């Protein structure tokens, strides 16, 4: 009767493998650890240089080693904050309907340089932003039918405000949508926000 082979589990200090025989039990070279950490993090999703630097600091990689590894990754194109910002703006604007202000705020929290943020959110023009706001209001409008006019305005304008749309644009878009539905919009933009 054949028997099942049991896997041998590696244990620290087990030097039966000739390739491991000369290794010390001390931690790996910090640069090697930093590279491994960065590659693992970049496998799942793109990250900014700051996000990777924070992850390396959290894992106690020396600052000079971290900067050296991150610079090398930038040189070979594995870290590209400009491409990250462009992709982020494209994805979050089309996917969630976020406006330039909200996108800039998100990119700042991810550690993207201000000049790169300006360039990335500059891809969106006012007309594009307003068209997206109209689409968002049109989707939400049906759910507010039957509510009183002021409450509808607060709901719709509040939704746009949370997504980073300017107050004037939000009120204008909501008022136009309500007018198209036959609502009386006299005095709607007074006292909100």
Q: Can you put this structure into words, describing what you see?
A:
The protein starts with 29 loop residues before the first helix and ends in a 13-residue tail after the last helix. The chain is elongated. The longest helix has 16 residues, at 81-96. The chain has nine helices and no strands. Helix content is 60%, strand content 0%. The chain has 193 residues and is an all-alpha fold. It has three domains: 30-75; 81-121; 126-180. It has helices at residues 30-44, 49-58, 63-75, 81-96, 100-109, 114-121, 126-141, 149-162, 167-180. The model is unreliable at 11-26 (pLDDT under 50).
Question: What are the SSEs and their pairings?
Answer:
Elements: H1 30-44, H2 49-58, H3 63-75, H4 81-96, H5 100-109, H6 114-121, H7 126-141, H8 149-162, H9 167-180
Keywords:
193 residues, single chain, 0% strand, mainly alpha
Give the rounded overall mean pLDDT. 85
Categorize the overall geometry.
Answer: elongated
Q: Strand pairing plus helix content: what structural class?
A: mainly alpha
Kindly give the count of domains: 3
Q: What is the β-strand count? A: 0
Rg result:
26 Å
Largest sheet: none
Q: What letter string, H or E per element, gives the SSE order?
A: HHHHHHHHH
What proportion strand?
A: under 5%
In helices, the fraction of residues equals 55-70%
* N-end to C-end Cα span: 80 Å
Instruction: Please give the count of helices.
Output: 9
Regions with pLDDT < 50 over 5+ consecutive residues? 11-26
């Amino acid at each position: 009767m054949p028997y099942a082979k049991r896997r041998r589990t590696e244990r620290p200090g087990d030097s039966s493998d000739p390739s491991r025989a000369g290794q010390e039990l001390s931690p790996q070279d910090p640069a090697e650890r930093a590279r491994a950490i960065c590659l693992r993090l970049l496998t799942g999703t793109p990250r900014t240089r700051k996000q990777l630097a924070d992850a390396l600091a959290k894992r106690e990689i020396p600052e000079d080693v971290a900067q050296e590894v991150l610079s090398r990754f930038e040189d070979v194109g594995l870290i590209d904050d400009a491409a990250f910002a462009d992709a982020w703006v494209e994805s979050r604007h089309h996917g969630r309907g976020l406006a330039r202000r909200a996108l800039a705020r998100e990119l700042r929290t991810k550690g993207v340089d201000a000049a790169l943020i300006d360039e990335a959110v500059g891809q969106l023009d006012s007309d594009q932003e307003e068209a997206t706001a109209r689409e968002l209001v049109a989707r939400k409008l049906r759910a507010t039918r039957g509510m009183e006019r002021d409450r509808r305005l607060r709901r719709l304008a509040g939704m746009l405000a949370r997504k980073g749309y300017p107050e004037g644009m939000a009120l204008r878009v909501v008022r136009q949508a309500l007018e198209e539905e036959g609502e009386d919009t006299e005095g709607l933009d007074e006292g909100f926000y």
